[in-house]
């Protein structure tokens, strides 16, 4: 029996998952990537490799670990993260919507998808440095996010590429797909670098539109012209455009996106001169340990309203919407040892002073008098009776402020003081294509575009008003696996 020929457009986690699944099913798979080998991997290489999935207890995690004999594991409390909790976390960002079919699939298939990748040689490590704190001799994980791919996003790509090639998959770089070929209404190939190439099915896994200035402005508004693009420069909406030209349904929240506070002075795309693993270090997501001030010297979000896993993808937007699209994150020396490594990154921008009075004079672009008044009012409002505990929503908040800080509020009283300038950095867009349960792209009337499948960040309906950290990579695998299997049955 002749093997089906499948073309996968893109080479990130979703593309790799689709390719591996199709190869596993007996197909011949060619992956086409418009970047060179250095920039291949889409947004995957820019991530910390964290994957959110439902699990009942630590026993479910052990088979996934690169080193199950790590001597920290016996004193680690991984807790549990049930499907109900995962669903509730997604609902918390849905702006009143019920779970979409895509979200239901993400929750229900999350563990099996991660375990499936493990069966192809992808291994994981507990996220000790970012997702846990030591308490009473135990290492306690928080926020439902426990594991990341070994060697983070770069490692995930490398392990997936090795699995893909081990199964016989081929990847071609500098291969820009610009058009889909149809035959009697069915997608039957692509135009790549001006040349036609036929196949039995095409899987689009080439990301959203976040790297396109005009599409950001068109879909999200003029503020987004100023957004830093923290991922690949190649996600310019090519897959969406090609699918829409064939009548694909526009689906999901096109004015929504994953947007993270980023170093104000970072280069676009996380500085392409750096190794991929270092590019993520421009994000700045420890605001929950301090406060954020805008140009008016005001706070504008409740920095401690929830664990940062549940707020950072919203607060990037909040920063971008401030006057002049920036803010300053302020900390004192008490929390320096709790700040993530990105705050000590060699290219991190910050100012430091021995008093708050001196610090505000260094906050460029800020109303200094108002900023100092805000910090003094905050100090006076902090609950000093409740114990600070970063492992839980500790209830150590403020009293009497118009905008409260609900948890982890501590006075600024220990020099030196530091402030980091940030803006909004966009990671990926939320709006995209609608697919069926086999991953086939649907038209406006919900009929199929035969031969065309999709997965990854160009799928709509997965995220709306926000994003529980680590869900994006899991979504890529869940829907990549679906598309890779589905294209063989069509």
Topology readout:
Elements: E1 5-9, H1 13-24, E2 28-32, E3 50-51, E4 76-77, H2 83-91, H3 101-118, E5 124-126, H4 128-131, E6 132-135, E7 138-141, E8 147-149, H5 152-166, E9 170-172, E10 177-183, E11 186-192, E12 195-198, E13 201-204, H6 213-220, E14 228-229, H7 238-245, E15 250-251, E16 257-263, H8 276-279, E17 291-293, H9 312-320, E18 327-332, E19 351-353, H10 356-361, H11 368-381, E20 417-429, E21 432-433, E22 440-442, E23 448-454, H12 471-489
Parallel strand pairs: 1-2, 1-13, 2-9, 4-7, 13-23, 14-20
Antiparallel strand pairs: 3-8, 5-8, 6-7, 10-11, 11-12, 15-21, 16-20, 17-18, 18-20, 19-20, 22-23
Helix pairs in contact: 1-5, 1-12, 2-3, 3-12
- The radius of gyration is 23 Å
Number of strands: 23
Please tell me the overall pLDDT: 96
What is the topology, as strand order, of the major beta sheet? 9-2-1-13-23-22
Description of the molecule:
The chain has 490 residues and is α/β, with parallel strands linked by helices. The protein is built from twelve helices and 23 strands. The strands form six sheets. Strands 9-2-1-13-23-22 form a six-stranded mixed beta sheet, covered by helices on one side. Strands 14, 16, 17, 18, 19 and 20 form a six-stranded mixed beta sheet that branches. Strands 3-8-5 form a three-stranded antiparallel beta sheet. Helix 1 (13-24) packs parallel to helix 5 (152-166) and helix 1 (13-24) packs parallel to helix 12. The protein is globular, with a radius of gyration of 23 Å. The mean pLDDT is 96.
